[in-house]
Specification:
Length: about 240
Amino acid sequence: MLRLFFIFILSSVLAQNSLPDDFERCRQRDAGLNDCLKSAVPDALRKMKKGIPTLSVPPLEPLAVSGMNIEAGAGPVTITQNYKNIRLHGLTDSVLTSYKADLKHYRLRTDSLTPKMEFIADYIMKGRILVLPIQGKGIANVTMVNLVVKHDLIGEPVVKDGETYMRIRDYRVKFIPQRVYLHFSNLFNGDKRLGDQMNLFLNENSDLVFNELKDSYEKSLSSVFQDVTNKIFNSVPMNKIFPED
């Protein structure tokens, strides 16, 4: 029984320090490293739909986020938004259009295309768009269609037990959607006429509204992406994510 216990502990430790066997590996010295990563990363995202419990990676479809705050800007859109119980749908359908890995300097840059990303959450909102006041509390749906995301991951080496890990210390994103659709339920304390008019106005001016708030969305979601990425990078040594031979 004691022997079986030690075998179980050993297998758990090994499992927590390696990628699942069905993940494609891209070798560090391969001349086609970037092309390999373009196919390997989307494949890994699809395989992480239900998460990786051994690495504490949460399910990615949908990706649950506890909350985030969007502060009021200083331009034509000045809205304070509080979001709770966020669900991000569509991340695992992303494809990579470019990838540039500089593993020597722990830098990863990539562009991705997500056909449809849905941001659904409980919201509380108050502010002004142009000259129109807006306030409400209900369910928000922000849908970005054909979303191009520019990712810039800046890492650093961390040595643990003689193994080198890559920790992402800064994750920057830029969102470039082809179209944004916005819908907020229960605007103006449930006044349907005012709520319908405001949702119509928001969608007729979605470029203006989203562009004014985009920096806050990018900053908040980049920290979410950074946390998920580090779940893997902090658990698996670099030479097991990017084999050297």
